[in-house]
Structure formats: structure tokens, C-alpha cells
Amino acid sequence: MLIGVIADDFTGASDIAVTLAKGLVGEGGLNTTQYSGVPTMPADADVEAGVVALKSRSVAASEAVEQSLAACRWLLDQGCEQIVFKYCSTFDSTDSGNIGPVTDALAALLEVRSVVMCPAFPALGRTVYQGHLFVQDKLLNESGMEHHPLTPMTDADLRRVLRRQSANPVAHIAWQTVVQGSQVLQQAINEPQTRTLLIVDAISEHDLTTLGRACQGAKLVTGGSGIALALPHNFIAQGRATGKQAQAPLIDGPEAILVGSCSGATRLQIAEHQKNHPVMMIEVKDVLSGETGPAQLVAFITEHQGRAPLVYSSGDPEAVKRVQEQYGRERVAAALDSLFGETAQQLVAAGTRRIVVGGGETSGAVVSALGLGALTIGAEIDTGVPSMVSRGRQPVALVLKSGNFGGRDFFARAVDALRGDD
After folding, report:
1. What is the DSSP letter of 97?
2. Nearest to 81 by CA among 238, 220, 214
3. What percent of the chain has pLDDT above 70?
4. Secondary structure of 102-122 as H, E, C letters
5. pLDDT tens digits, residue range 314-349?
6. CA distance 375 to 29
7. End-to-end CA distance of the chain
8. Residue 421 above 60 pLDDT?
9. How far is residue 261's CA from residue 149's CA, in Å, rounded to a whole number?
């Protein structure tokens, strides 16, 4: 294994996994496998990039550090020469962590001096300029992320955000340096004489390609999935990888769509899906009272099999906030995680073989509940969203979609993209 990724949620893991599997246009990427949690067994010998998916974005910082270090040690045992800490392209965290503390811990373990930090994902409108994170044409704190129920982002200046989280100095490499090319950028990255976290500007995929090439030989790199665009190139150029196209077997069988995201994009996707497919809305109060449970969800999906049935708990941010204030944020999150996890278990036990999941927390709950282990990364269905297939005698095909990803008709397309011919 050449590159090892530690991802702080499951959808983000699949996002960077498909980036590594694709590589640069015309060149190909690395043979990539995603793991649900820290594996207990060695990786297969042909795996060139391994992505460990954790559910560590919203846990206590100390727990996130512990999980991330365990993942890092396993990846190093597999021979990884470069570790990537992957977080969200909207830098989802609070003043107490978890991006800063995890980065500090990994930097200490790997004994590195300079740490690149760049969440930019221009294909989805996330750019970093003069140290500030933009979502499309808005500063992060004016993009709607300031209302996020778990990690409200109220400051677009990533230097200030990181200084409140990290014990290490924070510096900035401006876009004017990035555009001078990978050699100049690499010199700027290597300049600090003491451990320093470096916010690096990037406003285009060309900038990210330049940054990726400048990170050749770096033991630790951090960022959104875009940071990985050119990382496979560095090993391919050295003749240590041949460049491959992502492939995974397609799966036939019953389908289900489980959605727990409250993002604006997801709500629009649900509304679009509802025009031609059966949709069931879940009331959180009914889940908490026991009136709605896995049995009701499974029954609905089974009744509408073959028509891409969708069940969701998504709501607008204000409605979600009111529910959290009434019942408690942790109680609501735990109840929904349990609901979707148990529903997925029952569906797979009954023969469901294609599952599309919307929302990072929901994806983590589903994948953890299913315990599928290693997932082979397949083709990209939409920007940053691949198909994935579990291994074993009865494989399950999965799509894990972050809240803001995908076009209006994403859910129907995702279900169809998983279909096989058997």
C-alpha cells in the first residue's frame, strides 16, 4: 500500500477513495479499497491506496484522536508512505476540534514539520483564497453552514478557526505562490523550521494538481478530497504504480434508499424523487416514542420494491433545530442512527442488495451496522460519489452520498448505476 487515508466520516471516505481511484485524466489512479473502521486484518497485497472510514467528525476530540492514531498505525503497518487526513470541504469542526487536534496528533506520530491543509473542492464550489473558505460566491459563514446542527461554521478565515483548535503555529501560503508551480510551492511548504500547519489557497483543480505534485514525498497531507487529485500521479511517474481505472462488479437485486441529511441539496433531491417514486417521511417524535421503527420502514420498502423506494428523516434546518431543542441533539442523533442501522440490517437479511444512503451520519450508521468490511471502489456516479461493492458470497452494492453532493435526480440514477445483469 502506497497511500493511506484517514477519513473523519463515511461519505467523505468514499469521496476521496474515488478521487484516488480515478487519478488524473488520461493517466488513471490507484487500486483503492475503503475500510469501515480500523481493520483487524492485513490489507490485500494488490491494494495501492487504502481509505479507513471513521465516524469521528462529531465525537469528542480525544476520541477522534484515538481513532485516527489507530487508523494511522494500521496504515503504516501496511507499508503506506503517505498519510492523508481527509475532512469535509466545508472544514466541519468546532472550536474544540476535531480537525486541529487530530492533525496535531498525526503530525507528532509521523514526526513531520510542515503540514499542508487545504479543504478546497472547486468542482462543488469550495475554494480557498487568502486563507478564507468560500462556498460558491459566499464566505463559509454566510453559506448556510453557520446553521449546521452539529458543526456550525461561523468563521470563514481558516487560520483563525485552526488557531482556536491547534497547539501548533498556523501559517498561510497564498494563491500567488501556488500559481508559480509545484517546485516553488514545494519550497514554500518545506520552509518552516518548526512544526507548522499551512493553510494553502486553491481556487481551481489546476491549483490542486499543482499542490498534489508539490506534496510528493510528504508523510502527512490533510484536506478535502481534492487534495488527492495528483497524489497517485507522483507514484505513477516514479513507475511504482501503473495507473488503473476504478472498477467494481454491478449487483442485481432489491433496492432501498435511506436518507438522513437535512441539507438543501438533499431536500431538493427528495422532492424530485417523489415525483416518480414512492417516498416515506419519518417523524422524529414517532421514532422516539417507538411508534415508528425498522419494521415500518422495511415494510414500506418491501411493498414498493422495484420502484426505488426512499425513506427519509430530512427536514429544513429550523425544523431540525426545534426537534433537537425539544428532545436533545444527542438523543435525536442516536435514535436516527439506530433506526437506519437496524433497518439496513433487516433489509440485507431479507435480500436487499442495492442500498443508497444520503447523509454522512446516516451513512456511518448504516455501514457500521452492516459490518461489510472492505469495499471495492467502482465508477463515479456523480462528482465525488462512487459505487462501492462489499466482498464475500453475497455482496452488497452501496452508494454513500454526502448531503450537498449530487444532481436533482441523483437517487434514481444511483440505484440504476448499481444494477447488474445477473
Report:
1. B
2. 220
3. 98
4. HHHHHHHHHCCCEEEEECCEH
5. 667 677 778 878 888 788 888 999 999 999 999 999
6. 17
7. 32
8. no
9. 11
